Structures are given as structure tokens and as C-alpha cells.
Amino acid sequence: MDSFDIKWHLNREFPVIHLEGDITGEASVKIQAAYEKIKSEKRTYTMIFDFSNSKYINSSGISIFVQMLQEYQEHNGQFIFTGLNEHLSKVLHIVGITEFITICDSIDSAIILSKNQ
């Protein structure tokens, strides 16, 4: 089993969350904790998730994003995903998450998009 790590920082007004490793049940706990910490520290309507160092997601990983999306959209929040490989893009499309998020090629393009909205 690959280990998972999550790091985040504020890039101007937007949190950028870097996901590293397989997104499974173990990762879900860490993702949820980071999400709650970001919400408590910074009131923002956009969160940018960078998947550049993640190659795999299972149903537990998908589930945590669905839960967070439901809550965040109730407050008119937006998730932007960057760095998706072909597998992740395909899985997220199949389960329908792509209808509720924005996908950008890079963190920089996500930040530019967020500023223009």
C-alpha cells in the first residue's frame, strides 16, 4: 500500500491542497482533516486540489470528495482539480464528480480562473 500525504498552503487568497499518493480510506481521513482545518482558518469560496502526485483513487477516496462537495456547494463554494492523470479523470467522470467541479491543467490556470470569477 502506498502511503499518502497532504500538504496545503494559501496561494494569495486560495488554498492549494497537494495530494501525494493513492487516495483511499487512509487518505480520506487526512483529506477531511485538512479540509476542516482550511475552513476554520480561511474563509474562501474556492479550493484548489492538486492531484499531480496521485495516481489512483478508490471508492473511499471518491466518497470523501462527494461529501465535501455537497457541503461546500451549500455555501456556493467551488472545487478546482488540477494535475489529473488519465485514470483519475476517467474515474471522476464515470462517477459524475466532473459535473460539480472545474478541472484545470495547472495550479496557475486554476488561480487565474478563480480570480476572474
Keywords:
117 residues, alpha/beta, Transcription Regulator spoIIAA, 5 strands, 44% helix, globular
Describe this structure in words.
This protein is of the alpha/beta class. Helices cover 44% and strands 26% of the residues. It has a five-stranded mixed beta sheet with strand order 1-2-3-4-5, sandwiched between helices. Strand 3, helix 2 and strand 4 form a beta-alpha-beta unit. The protein starts with a strand and ends with a helix.
SSE topology sketch:
Layout: E1 5-11, E2 14-20, H1 25-41, E3 46-53, H2 59-74, E4 78-82, H3 86-94, E5 102-104, H4 107-115
Helix pairs in contact: 1-2
Radius of gyration: 13 Å
| Strand percentage | 25-35%
Q: How many domain modules?
A: 1
Helical content band = 40-55%
Order of helices and strands: EEHEHEHEH
CATH fold type: Transcription Regulator spoIIAA
Give the strand order of the largest sheet, numbering strands 1, 2, ... along the chain.
1-2-3-4-5
Structural class by secondary-structure content: alpha/beta
Uncertain segments of ≥5 residues (pLDDT<50)? none
Largest sheet: 5 strands, mixed
CATH 2nd-level architecture: 2-Layer Sandwich
What's the count of strands?
5
Large-scale geometry: globular
Within CATH, the superfamily carries the name STAS domain
Q: How far apart, in Å, are the first and last alpha carbons?
A: 39 Å
Mean pLDDT: 92
Which CATH top level class fits? Alpha Beta
Q: Note the total helix count.
A: 4
